[in-house]
């Protein structure tokens, strides 16, 4: 791969900032270079297939056995006592999550050109991890929006009665955008991505995702099968982005058996070259 363009020692802050942004984007789209990426791809494919079989069976079972019964037990929409549930559910809204992650990415990009040495390396390492989180959620949400349009499942009680099989494919309206749940996609994609980067947060992120999923049921925004479908889309999306990063040696390493694991310290290799080239200490 050609070396990134050199930045003169005298480059001003704006020049260093633009170079950093350019090199950060370039390393995301470069050709994969990890020698064990094929093993990681096979292992990931097996896990995705297993998830699709297990959760796919759960979705179908819920549609027939639980969806109607569950929404019939929930309080009516706009019940005054549910105000706090409406507040909590916003923590799984894709616009909010992506805005926060995007803001953090911008903050890192603006701060990094002003730093040097280990502080710069640590911040660039955090930037790569934030890129992974952002893209995991963004890809998952985009796939979910496409699935919503194709499936066209009516939300609970759309049409006036509890009907788990109220479909109008390619409808494109909010009323027929129930499956998969967008909030569940966002929550589970974020939960998987954060857990992949910081494994010690796994339990806390799982609790967060389950709480968001529960709020969608209580608010009669989705059927149980919708949130399971959202979880499936979110996890698969985050897994796909994790493989993309690992294959390019960004933030993740690949073991001999194909297991993808987060790097414990600041990413090495290309990150060091980016840091040296962009900022020329």
Care to describe what's here?
The longest helix has about 35 residues, at about 115-150. About 65% of the residues lie in helices and about 0% in strands. By secondary structure, the chain is mainly α. It has helices at about 15-30, 35-65, 65-75, 85-90, 95-110, 115-150, 180-195, 200-220, 225-245, 270-280, and strands at about 250-255, 260. Strand 1 and strand 2 (about 260) form a beta hairpin. A two-stranded antiparallel sheet has the order 1-2.
Number of strands: 2
Counted by DSSP, the helix tally is 10
- Radius of gyration using CA atoms only: 21 Å
Measured by DSSP, the beta-strand proportion falls in under 5%
Percent range of helical residues: 55-70%
Main-sheet strand order equals 1-2
Distance N terminus to C terminus?
A: 23 Å
Structural class by sheet pairing and helices: mainly alpha
Low-confidence stretches: 1-10, 267-281
Q: What sort of overall outline do the alpha carbons produce when their principal axes are compared?
A: globular
Mean pLDDT: 90
Helix and strand run: HHHHHHHHHEEH
Largest sheet: 2 strands, antiparallel
């Amino acid at each position: 791969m050609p070396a990134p363009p050199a930045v003169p020692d005298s480059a001003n802050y704006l020049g260093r900032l633009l170079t950093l942004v350019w090199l950060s984007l370039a390393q995301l789209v470069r050709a994969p270079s990890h020698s064990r990426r094929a093993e990681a791809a096979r292992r990931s494919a097996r896990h995705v297939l297993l998830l699709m079989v297990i959760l796919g069976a759960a979705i179908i079972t819920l549609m027939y056995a639980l969806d109607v019964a569950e929404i019939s037990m929930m309080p009516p929409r706009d019940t005054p006592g549910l105000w706090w549930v409406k507040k909590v559910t916003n923590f799984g809204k894709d616009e909010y999550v992506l805005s926060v992650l995007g803001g953090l990415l911008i903050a890192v990009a603006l701060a990094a050109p002003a730093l040097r040495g280990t502080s710069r390396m640590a911040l660039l390492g955090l930037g790569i991890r934030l890129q992974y989180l952002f893209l995991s959620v963004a890809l998952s949400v985009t796939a979910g929006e496409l699935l919503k349009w194709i499936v066209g499942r009516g939300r609970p009680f759309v049409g006036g009665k509890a009907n788990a099989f109220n479909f109008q494919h390619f409808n494109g309206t909010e009323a027929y955008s129930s499956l998969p749940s967008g909030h569940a996609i966002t929550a589970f994609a974020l939960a998987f991505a954060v857990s992949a980067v910081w494994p010690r947060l796994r339990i806390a992120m799982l609790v967060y995702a389950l709480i968001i999923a529960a709020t969608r049921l209580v608010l009669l925004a989705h059927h149980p099968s919708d949130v399971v479908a959202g979880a499936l889309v979110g996890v698969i999306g985050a897994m796909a982005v994790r493989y993309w990063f690992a294959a390019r040696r960004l933030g993740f390493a690949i073991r001999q058996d194909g297991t993808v694991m987060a790097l414990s310290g600041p990413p090495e290799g290309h990150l060091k070259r980016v840091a040296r080239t962009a900022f020329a200490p």
